[in-house]
Amino acid sequence: MNCNRTGEFAKELQALGWWYQHFEFPNGVKTGGGDPPGYDARTRWSFIEPFVPDDLTGKTVLDVGGNAGFFSIQMKLRGAQRCVLVDPFEIAIKQAGFAAKQFGVALELIMEDAHAYCLTTEERFDYVLFLGLFYHLKYPGIVLDRLAEMTRERIFIHSHVIGHKRGPGISKPDYKRKTDDHLLEHPGFPRLAFVEAQYNEDSTNWWIPNRTGMEAMARSAGLRIIDRPHRQILVAAPEIYFGKQVFPKLVFPRYGKPGGAVLPGPQRYDAEGWIEISEAIAQRPVKKTNFLVQTGWKWTNRLRSLCLKIRGRLLSKII
Ligand SMILES: C[S@@+](CC[C@H](N)C(=O)[O-])C[C@H]1O[C@@H](n2cnc3c(N)ncnc32)[C@H](O)[C@@H]1O
After folding, report:
1. Whether 140 contacts 207, CB under 8 Å
2. Whose CA is nearest to atom 13 of ligand 1?
3. C-alpha span between 268 and 289 (Å, rounded)
4. What span, in angstroms and rounded, lies between the C-alpha atoms of 209 and 121?
5. Numbers of helices and strands, H then E, in the chain
6. For the segment 58-93, what is each residue's pLDDT rounded down to a tens digit?
7. What is the percent of the chain where pLDDT is above 70?
8. Which of 51, 3, 9 lies closest to 28 in space, CA to CA?
9. Ligand 1 atom 22 nearest Cα
10. Which of 38, 61, 103, 227 makes the best surface tag, with the fewest CB within 10 Å?
11. Mean pLDDT across the stretch 183-196?
């Protein structure tokens, strides 16, 4: 494997700036600076991949907030006919173009805000990837509703979530004003926290849902939740088709955080988040492998999870 980080390739890679998605190119070189990944895109893919058909021949894909294109590329490698990646930042679009070239696939790259794209296109797609974007949107509900309408077969939703980890949450067909108001304050009640300031030093973070909030919003967009491979990930399919309204003229507000950077910088290593993901992997039944491989995988992940836990504790003492 060629892990050479010098030469023309490395120069090109560096010129493309800070990479949020860490993954390996076919020549063995990885994105990022060689540090422990802030975000290893393969891990997220490992939760989604079992729900993606092996053969996507003739299928169309939308990857909204697609960043450097890791997920779009995976869909193309499975034979997707067309894959549209939308991201408002030039750095992401350039990285995605570079990455697609390395894998010998073609992506349609659109440099646009998700709101503007979703509110101005009439396109529909077989598969929609809505990963790591919900909380970056100032109007997440309208984008989710549009994406639900745009999905023909399946949508993958990932969001950072807070609070209420387990249990079914609160659900009633009708809440009585006043007498049921306490239920609305229950931690399991679907909610979004509005972040007026920055969150994780990122001024593109706006609304953080809890798990039940994410699910309730998906259902209310007309989606049926097929599976929850991780507490931050939903696999869903269209259930109720609400249709769409096309307005001849739509004026969309500009938005931003006063004093906040437009483009988020490199993110800090999220030790806690990775502990959670590693633990989820360790508990997950492993498919398609024999007993020895399964046992090895399970214990490797448990060990990894333990190392991350120790590292996280040490880091939190240092910070
Ligand atoms: C947390 S990253 C997730 C990237 C990728 N989907 C993944 O799961 O690895 C968020 C991505 O959304 C993009 N983004 C942020 N605000 C956006 C917006 N308003 N519309 C579309 N994309 C946005 C960012 O540029 C970034 O590429």
Report:
1. yes
2. 65
3. 35
4. 26
5. 10, 9
6. 999 999 999 999 999 999 999 999 999 999 999 999
7. 80
8. 3
9. 65
10. 227
11. 94
Q: Considering only residues 122 and 284, tell me which one the structure prediction assigns the higher pLDDT.
A: 122
Q: How far is CA 201 from the centre of its chain?
A: 18
Report pLDDT for 125.
98
Res 8: pLDDT: 86
7-265 carries CATH number 3.40.50.150: yes
Q: Roughly how many angstroms between the first and final C-alpha of the chain, as a whole number?
A: 36
Q: How far apart are CA 284 and CA 271, in angstroms?
A: 20
CA distance 268 to 282: 24
Asked if 213 and 193 touch (Cβ cutoff 8 Å), the reply is no
Pocket of ligand 1 (CB under 6 A): 20-21, 41, 44, 65-67, 86-89, 92, 113-114, 131-133, 136-137, 204
Q: What SS3 state is found at 236?
A: strand
| Predicted TM-score of the model (pTM) | 0.86
pLDDT digits 0-9 by tens, 263-277: 776 765 565 565 666
Whose Cα sits closest to atom 11 in ligand 1? 65
Residue whose CB lies within 8 A of the most ligand 1 atoms, among 62, 72, 87, for a mutation test: 87
DSSP track, 49-63: GGGS-S--BT-EEEE
Identify the residue whose tokens are 């993954």.
23
If one counts every other C-beta atom within 10 angstroms of the C-beta of residue 287, the result is 7
Report the amino acid identity of residue 261: A
DSSP H or E segment with residue 238: strand 233-238
Q: What is the pLDDT of residues 115-167, one digit of tens each?
A: 999 999 999 999 999 999 999 999 999 999 999 999 999 999 999 999 877 66
* Domain residue ranges in the chain: 7-265, 270-319
Distance 296 CA to ligand 1 centre (A): 34
Q: Would you say residue 289 has pLDDT above 70?
A: no
